[in-house]
Design brief:
The protein is α+β, with helices and mostly antiparallel strands. It is 32% helix and 27% strand. The chain contains nine helices and 14 strands. The chain has a seven-stranded mixed beta sheet, with helices on both faces. Strands 13-12-11-10-14 form a five-stranded antiparallel beta sheet. A two-stranded antiparallel ribbon has the order 1-2. A hairpin with a 3-residue loop joins strand 1 (53-56) and strand 2 (60-63). Helix 6 crosses helix 9 (266-276) and helix 8 (243-264) packs across helix 9 (266-276). The longest helix is centred in the C-terminal third of the chain and has 22 residues, at 243-264. The N and C termini lie far apart (44 Å). It binds biotin (BTN). Biotin binds at residues 96-98, 120, 123-126, 129, 131, 140-142, 184, 194-196, 212-214.
C-alpha cells in the first residue's frame, strides 16, 4: 500500500478550484502533469470513493458537489500555521494508520505529521481488538507527537487527544458527547470514537508518541456484533457530517490543548477532562484490568491522568491502565 500520489491530490485540487464548472480533460492533464488516460483512470477511482463527478474525457469533467475526501490539498489551507497537520500523508487504503505513523516516526517524521486513510484493512483498537474502518465513512488518523517529556507523560497526552475529539465532535455535530475513561467518545451511551496511543521510548525519554484516532462519522449502520455498543454521528444525528470539517476541527483542538499542556501542565488538562466526562466522579463502573475485574465508584482524575476509584469494600485505588463500563 502506497500513499496517495501527489498528482491525484493535485487533480482533486484542480476540480475543487474550478467549483462546479466543466474542466476539459486536456486542461486537467496539463495542470496535473499526466496523460489524459491517467486523468480518466483517476477520475474513475475517485468515483468509486463516492466523489460525484459528471462527464467523461470527451466533454470534460465537472464536480457535482464538494467531495468529502480527506485529501491534503483540501485540508491544507484550513491548517495553515499549525504544527499539527503541517504534513499530511494520505492513503486511499492503508492497513493501519498507526502502523504507518510508527514507521514514519522511526524514520524521523517530524512532530505534527498526520497519517490519514479513507479506509483501513487492519485497523487496530485497544487490547488487541480490531477497529471497524469502513471506506469513506469514518476518520482514521494517526498523529506523530514528539514532546520533550518523559514516557510517564503518555497518559496525559492521550487525554489531550480524547478531549480534542470531544471538543471537535461536539462542536461540529452539535450532539451531546461524553468521554468514558480513558478516551472513548460516547453519544447516547454508545461509542463513536476511540484512541490507540503507541510510543517508542527509552526509560527516561519519549522518542515519539503516535496517537491514533478513529471516529465513526457517516456509517449508515454498525455491523451486528457492534450495534449494541457502538454508533456513528450519522446514526445519532440523522444527517451526514463533512468528515474534512471534523478532521480539521480535531487537529486544531489537538494543537490548542497540546500547547495548553506544555504551557500550564497536567492540571489544566485533568480539570477540563473532569468537566467534560460524566465518568469522572460518582459513576458506578465495572473495571477490567489485565489481571482483575471488579466494581467501583469513580472519584476523580489524578493529575497524571489515572482514574481514582473507590471499591465496594471502601478501598481506594488508582486505575492507570484498563477499561471501565457503566453499571446501570
Ligand atoms: C479503541 O480501541 O478504542 C481505539 C481505536 C483506535 C482506532 C484508530 S483508527 C486510526 C488509528 N489506526 C489504527 O489502526 N487504530 C487507530
Amino acid at each position: 500500500m502506497a500513499p496517495t500520489d501527489r498528482r491525484i491530490d493535485k487533480l482533486i485540487h484542480v476540480l475543487v478550484a474550478n467549483g462546479t464548472v466543466v474542466v476539459p480533460g486536456p486542461k486537467i492533464a496539463a495542470e496535473v502533469g499526466v496523460t489524459r488516460k491517467t486523468v480518466w483512470e483517476w477520475i474513475e477511482k475517485l468515483r468509486e470513493l463516492g466523489v460525484e463527478i459528471k462527464g467523461h474525457h470527451a466533454t470534460g469533467y465537472q464536480l457535482e458537489s464538494i467531495p468529502d475526501i480527506l485529501a491534503p490539498s483540501l485540508l491544507r489551507s484550513e491548517l495553515a500555521g499549525l504544527e499539527i497537520g503541517h504534513r499530511i500523508v494520505h492513503y486511499f487504503q492503508a492497513d493501519s494508520t498507526n502502523s504507518i505513523a510508527m514507521e514514519l516516526a522511526a524514520q524521523g517524521a517530524a512532530h505534527g505529521t498526520v497519517v490519514v486513510a479513507e479506509e483501513q484493512t487492519a485497523g487496530r483498537g485497544r487490547f488487541g481488538r480490531t477497529w471497524y474502518s469502513e471506506k469513506s465513512s469514518g476518520i482514521y488518523a494517526s498523529i506523530v507527537l514528539r514532546p520533550s517529556l518523559p514516557p510517564a507523560a503518555a497518559p496525559i497526552l492521550t487525554l489531550v487527544a480524547g478531549l480534542a475529539v470531544h471538543e471537535s465532535v461536539s462542536g461540529v455535530s452539535g450532539l451531546a458527547t461524553d468521554i468514558r475513561w480513558p478516551n472513548d467518545l460516547m453519544v447516547n451511551g454508545k461509542k463513536v470514537a476511540g484512541i490507540l496511543t503507541e510510543m517508542s521510548a527509552e526509560l527516561d525519554r519519549l522518542h515519539a508518541l503516535v496517537v491514533g484516532i478513529g471516529i465513526n462519522v457517516n456509517h449508515r449502520q454498525m455491523p451486528p456484533e457492534l450495534e449494541q455498543i457502538a454508533t456513528s454521528l450519522r446514526i445519532e444525528g440523522g444527517r451526514v457530517y463533512p468528515r474534512a470539517k471534523v478532521l480539521v476541527a480535531l487537529l486544531k483542538e489537538v494543537e490548542k490543548l497540546y500547547q495548553l499542556l506544555l504551557a500550564e501542565g497536567n492540571d489544566a488538562i485533568a480539570s477540563r477532562w473532569e468537566a467534560a466526562s460524566s465518568f469522572a466522579r460518582g459513576k458506578h463502573v465495572r473495571v477490567r484490568t489485565s489481571s482483575d475485574q471488579f466494581v467501583a465508584v469513580t472519584t476523580g482524575l489524578d493529575r497524571s491522568g489515572a482514574l481514582r476509584l473507590c471499591r465496594e469494600d471502601g478501598r481506594e485505588e488508582l486505575l492507570v491502565a484498563g477499561e471501565v463500563v457503566e453499571v446501570k
